[in-house]
Amino acid sequence: MTKKIFRASALERLQSPDQLNTLMRVVQPTSWLVLLMVALIIASGVVWGFLGSIPHQVPARGILIHREGVHDIVSVGAGQVSDVFVEVGDRVRRGQIVARIEQPVLTYSLRDARADLKEARNHHAFLLKFHKKHLEGSLDNLTTQKRNLKTSRRSFGDRSDFLESQIRKELQLKDKGILPLKDLEATREKYDFTKNELNRIDMEIENTVVKNQELRAQAERELTGSQVELNDLLRKVKSLEAQFNLESRIRSKFAGRVVELKITVGTTVAGGTPVITVEPLDRKLVALLYVSPAEGKKIRPGMEIDLSPSTVKRDEYGSILGLVTTVSEYPATRESMLQILGGNRTLVESFLGQEAPISLYANLLPDAGTTSGYRWSSSRGPDLSIQAGTLCTAIATVERKRPISFLMPIFKKLGGI
User: Fold this and answer.
1) Of 71, 74, 100, 73, nearest in space to 273 by CA
2) Nearest Cα to 93, choosing from 242, 248, 251, 282?
3) Residue 46 scores a pLDDT above 80
4) Sign of torsion, CA 215 219 220 225?
5) pLDDT at 161
């Protein structure tokens, strides 16, 4: 029996002429659909390669602060803190006294200076009263004496004129032999005596003038010396009071809100020691960021940056959008970072890392429609306000390249270019 290789039904279909015009299916319709999808993906990839972009991003770490940063209120004087008048969260005014420091040495010096000033004032008042009474009495006596002397002088002057006239007459009588010589000499002796008295009176009158001037000069010297001493003590007291007020009272040079107290009652501080940290009342925040020196030089003002506060989940709310405003030319020093960050050494060390970083500032883009007041990348942001002092991470977009640019070196290499 011959073994059949093909089935009978298959042989019947081949023998029938009705099946010769039937189209044979080589590819199924679903395969065409898959092929079309692959073609679309390839076309999209080509279009994206020429029109799309791939960002080159640089990571950064930093902190959100107010535009002016935070300010340290420092103690001018050294001593022990006796009073602290503010707490964290309190608002302070410019010039407000926030703490007091004991100043025992200045207190004793000021007390002694005030006692000396009081004594000098009393002495000056005594001199004024004494010289007024004594000088007025002495001047009155000198005036009376001078008036009497002038009266005597007029009398002696009249007598001198009379005797001078008498001598001329007696000379005529003597020449005629009528008057003896001894009578003429007697008249001359009276005349000389009168002239001597006039000279004496003139000298006494001059002495009264000189004595008057001396009494006035002496009173003026004593009062001037007393006034000079009084003024010196007054300046000393005012200087000590100013020094006491400056060194015993810690005043805020800034208006803002207290964010940190570095002292308590009983703390001993040195001059120039930061005691309280204050942040400005301006609610607008900026990001202070630190980047490695190698990557930091790639960042320029105006570049986009995404900021992720540590208090917000990035995968849920996205990040805050911002723009870089300034980039430092040189790496930041520990001292400059301490000044900006309110002397927080732990924070400074965490930002420093192994090498001095480049510092930059970025503005947070505003959005009045969000609770935080800032624009977020993928949502309206969390239902909370972002506070100064919040740590954050950031990603700065420093460059965008066409995807095809990454393949160009390969094409050039294959083409031998």
Assistant:
1) 74
2) 251
3) no
4) positive
5) 82
Cα–Cα distance for residue pair 190/170, rounded to 1 Å: 13
Rounded Cα distance between 326 and 363, Å, is 10
Tens digit of each residue's pLDDT (9 = 90 or more) over 129-180? 887 777 666 666 667 777 777 787 787 778 778 878 877 877 877 777 777 7
What is the set of domains in the chain, with CATH numbers? 56-70+272-411 (2.40.30.170), 104-245 (1.10.287.1490)
φ, ψ for residue 269 (rounded to 5)?
-125, 155
The single residue listed with the structure tokens 């989940």 is 313
DSSP assigned state of 208: H
Amino acid at 342: G
With contact defined as beta carbons under 8 Å apart, do 402 and 53 qualify?
yes
In this predicted model, what pLDDT tens digit does every residue of 187-242 receive, in sequence order?
A: 788 878 878 877 887 787 777 777 777 777 777 888 888 889 999 999 999 999 99
Question: Is residue 415 scored above 80 in pLDDT?
Answer: no
The pLDDT tens digits for 52-82 are 566 677 888 999 888 776 788 999 999 999 9
Quote the longest CA-to-CA distance of the chain. 228
* Residue type at 139 in one-letter notation: L
pLDDT at 27 over 90: no
Q: What is the mean pLDDT of the chain?
A: 81
Element containing residue 84 per DSSP (H, E): strand 79-84
Cα separation, 116 vs 310, in Å, equals 63
305, β-bridge pairs? 322, 396
Distance CA 93, CA 278 (A): 11
Which residue blocks in 249-333 are alpha helix, DSSP H? 293-296, 314-317
User: Which of the two residues, 3 and 306, has the higher pLDDT score?
Assistant: 306
**Tokens found for residue 215:** 């009494």
277 vs 271: CA distance, rounded Å: 16
Q: Tell me how far apart the alpha carbons of residues 16 and 325 are, in angstroms, rounded to a whole number.
A: 86
Listed residue (404, 400, 399, 401) closest to 45, CA to CA = 404
pLDDT, position 24? 54
Alpha carbon 184 to its chain's center = 101
- Report d(CA 184, CA 178) in Å as an integer: 11
303 DSSP 8-state letter: -
Question: Between β-strands 320-327 and 274-279, what pairing exists: parallel, antiparallel or unpaired?
Answer: unpaired
Q: What is the pLDDT of residue 39?
A: 76
